[in-house]
C-alpha cells in the first residue's frame, strides 16, 4: 500500500504538473505560431501562383488583340487556343456552346466560374481535378468595332494551370510545422525537467528534513543555497528547528529533573514509611481497645499509611519504567495457576468468576503478571459491579486474559485516557479510589513482555452487554530484552 501511495504521489506531484505546464505552453505557442505562419505562407504561395497565371494569360491575350472578327468554326477556335497557350498552362476557348479541341462533356470549368466570366471580368478558381490541384482562370475577349470602341464578344478564354509544385511547397511547410511542434514539445519537456529539478531538489530536501525532524532528529538542518524564496524557506526551517531543539532540550532536562526528584523522594520516604508501617501494625492491634475517637484515628492513620506506602511503591516502579531500568525476571509459569493464586491471596476467589484454560504454560515474569491481574480485577471490583469475570485463552504464540465486570462501562471520552498516569475517570465511575497509577503500571508491565519485535498489549473497552472489558495479550515466550521507554 505504501509503495502504491508513493507512486500515486509521484504521478500527481509537482514534477508532473511542471512538465505538463511547460509542454502545454510549448505546444500552444508552437501551434499558434506554426499555424499562423503556415496559413500566411500558403496564402502567399497561392496568391503568387494566381497573380503569375493571371499576368501570363493577360500578356498572351494582349498579343492577339485587337480581334476584328470572331471564329466561324471549331478549327479557328483551336488555332486561337494554340496562340494563347503556354508551356505551363493549357488554354481552352468557348464560343456559343462550342469548345476548342472539340470538348463536349463534361464541362471543363465550373458553373460558378462560367457565371463570373459571363459578367465580363477576369475570374479564377482553385479546384481538384483527378486528385490534382488546378488553378482555373477565365475571361471574355472583347471585339473592336469600326468606330474604335469594343464590346463583349462572347468568346470565353479559360486557362488551366497545375498547382502541384505549389501544393508540394505547402506540404513541405506543413511538415516543417509538425517537426517544429515536435521539437518544441521535446524542448519544453527538457526545460520543464530542468526547472523541476531546480525547484524540486530543495523542496525534496525540505520534505526529508521535516520527516527526520518529525522522527525526533532535532539536529536536522538544511543547506541554504542562493537568495530566492526557497532559500528563505530553508533559513526559516533552520531557525525553527534550532528553537525547537533548544525548547525540547529544556523540556527533557526539566522532565529528567522531575523524574529524578520523584525517584529520590520516593526512595527517601521508604525508610520512614517502613517505621510508620511497623507502628501502624501496633495501632491496628490496639485500635479496638482504644476509646471512641482515638480508635477511629488509629485506624485512619493505619489506612492512610498503607495507602501512602502503596503510592511510594508505585512511584518507584514508574521511575524504573521511565529510566529504562525495569527488567523481566522470566520463568515458566502455569498461567491458570498464577491467576488463581493472585485471586486467592487477595481474598477475591469467591467474588470472581473464572474461565481458565488448563495447561497454558508461558515464559513470562510471574510478579508482573500478578501486578497486572490484581490491578485489573481490583479495578473491576472497586469501580464496576460484581460479578467480575476472568477468562484465559491461548494460541501457539500468545496468551490472552480478559477481565470484565457488570458495571456501567467506560465512557467513550474516557477510553483514550484509561492508561494515563494519575487519571481518574470520575465522570465514568461512581467512586474514584487509589492514586490513578494502577492501570498505567499494568500497561507498562504488559509492554515489557515482547517477542520478535512485538510487545504485549493491554486494551480497554466495553462489552456488548455493558461493563468494562480489559484484554491482556502476552507472548508465550517473552524476551529478556526490556522495552525502550516508549512514550504514549
Task: Describe this protein's structure.
With 488 residues, this protein is an alpha+beta fold. It has helices at 2-11, 14-64, 74-84, 111-118, 164-214, 229-287, 292-323, 335-345, 366-383, 438-448, and strands at residues 89-95, 98-99, 123-129, 132-144, 150-162, 331-334, 352-356, 361-364, 388-394, 398-404, 450-451, 454-455, 457-462, 468-475. The chain contains ten helices and 14 strands. The chain has a five-stranded antiparallel β-sheet with strand order 2-1-5-4-3, sandwiched between helices. The protein is rod-shaped and about 170 Å long. 22% of the residues are buried.
Descriptive labels:
disordered C terminus; single chain; 488 residues; 54% helix; five-stranded mixed beta sheet; alpha+beta; 14 strands; 10 helices
Task: Give a nutshell description of this structure.
The protein is α+β, with helices and mostly antiparallel strands and 488 residues long. The protein is built from ten helices and 14 strands.
Shape: rod-shaped
Instruction: Please identify the structural class as seen in this structure.
Output: alpha+beta
Compute the number of strand runs.
14
Order of strands across the widest beta sheet?
2-1-5-4-3
- Gap between N and C termini: 26 Å
What Rg is obtained from the alpha carbons, in whole angstroms? 52 Å
| Helix proportion | 40-55%
Order of helices and strands: HHHEEHEEEHHHEHEEHEEHEEEE
Regions with pLDDT < 50 over 5+ consecutive residues?
A: 1-12, 427-432, 482-488
Number of helices: 10
Percent strand? 15-25%
Largest sheet: 5 strands, antiparallel
- On the 0 to 100 scale, the average pLDDT is 77
Amino acid at each position: 500500500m505504501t509503495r502504491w501511495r508513493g507512486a500515486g504521489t509521484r504521478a500527481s506531484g509537482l514534477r508532473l504538473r511542471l512538465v505538463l505546464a511547460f509542454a502545454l505552453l510549448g505546444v500552444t505557442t508552437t501551434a499558434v505560431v506554426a499555424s499562423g505562419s503556415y496559413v500566411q505562407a500558403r496564402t502567399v504561395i497561392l496568391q503568387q501562383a494566381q497573380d503569375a497565371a493571371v499576368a501570363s494569360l493577360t500578356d498572351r491575350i494582349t498579343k492577339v488583340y485587337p480581334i476584328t472578327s470572331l471564329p466561324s468554326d471549331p478549327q479557328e477556335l483551336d488555332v486561337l487556343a494554340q496562340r494563347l497557350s503556354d508551356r505551363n498552362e493549357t488554354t481552352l476557348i468557348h464560343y456559343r456552346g462550342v469548345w476548342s479541341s472539340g470538348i463536349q462533356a463534361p464541362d471543363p470549368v465550373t458553373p460558378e466560374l462560367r457565371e463570373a466570366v459571363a459578367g465580363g471580368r477576369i475570374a479564377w478558381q482553385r479546384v481538384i481535378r483527378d486528385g490534382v490541384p488546378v488553378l482555373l482562370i477565365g475571361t471574355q475577349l472583347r471585339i473592336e468595332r469600326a468606330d474604335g470602341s469594343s464590346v463583349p464578344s462572347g468568346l470565353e478564354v479559360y486557362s488551366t494551370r497545375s498547382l502541384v509544385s505549389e501544393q508540394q511547397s505547402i506540404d513541405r511547410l506543413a511538415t516543417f510545422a509538425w517537426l517544429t511542434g515536435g521539437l518544441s514539445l521535446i524542448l519544453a519537456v527538457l526545460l520543464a525537467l530542468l526547472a523541476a529539478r531546480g525547484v524540486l531538489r530543495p523542496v525534496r530536501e525540505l520534505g526529508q528534513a521535516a520527516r527526520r525532524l518529525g522522527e525526533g532528529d532535532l539536529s536536522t538542518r538544511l543547506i541554504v543555497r542562493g537568495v530566492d524564496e526557497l532559500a528563505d524557506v530553508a533559513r526559516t526551517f533552520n531557525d525553527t528547528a534550532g528553537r525547537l531543539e533548544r525548547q525540547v532540550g529544556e523540556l527533557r532536562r526539566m522532565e529528567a529533573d522531575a523524574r529524578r526528584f520523584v525517584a529520590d523522594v520516593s526512595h527517601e520516604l521508604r525508610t520512614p514509611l517502613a517505621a510508620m508501617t511497623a507502628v501502624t501494625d501496633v495501632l491496628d492491634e490496639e485500635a479496638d481497645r482504644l476509646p471512641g475517637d482515638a480508635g477511629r484515628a488509629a485506624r485512619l492513620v493505619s489506612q492512610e499509611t498503607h495507602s501512602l506506602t502503596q503510592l511510594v511503591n508505585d512511584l518507584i516502579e514508574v521511575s524504573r519504567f521511565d529510566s529504562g531500568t525495569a527488567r523481566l525476571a522470566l520463568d515458566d509459569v502455569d498461567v491458570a495457576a498464577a491467576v488463581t493464586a493472585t485471586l486467592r491471596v487477595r481474598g477475591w476467589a469467591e467474588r470472581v468468576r473464572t474461565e481458565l484454560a488448563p495447561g497454558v504454560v508461558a515464559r513470562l515474569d510471574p510478579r508482573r503478571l500478578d501486578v497486572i491481574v490484581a490491578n485489573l480485577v481490583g479495578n473491576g471490583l472497586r469501580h464496576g459491579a460484581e460479578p467480575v469475570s476472568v477468562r484465559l485463552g491461548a494460541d501457539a504464540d500468545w496468551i490472552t486474559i480478559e477481565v470484565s465486570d457488570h458495571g456501567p462501562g467506560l465512557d467513550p471520552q474516557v477510553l483514550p485516557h484509561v492508561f494515563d498516569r494519575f487519571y481518574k475517570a470520575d465522570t465514568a465511575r461512581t467512586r474514584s479510589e487509589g492514586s490513578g497509577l494502577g492501570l498505567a503500571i499494568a500497561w507498562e508491565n504488559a509492554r515489557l513482555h515482547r517477542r520478535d519485535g512485538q510487545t504485549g498489549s493491554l486494551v480497554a473497552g466495553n462489552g456488548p452487554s455493558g461493563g468494562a472489558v480489559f484484554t491482556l495479550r502476552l507472548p508465550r515466550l517473552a524476551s529478556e530484552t526490556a522495552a525502550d521507554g516508549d512514550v504514549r
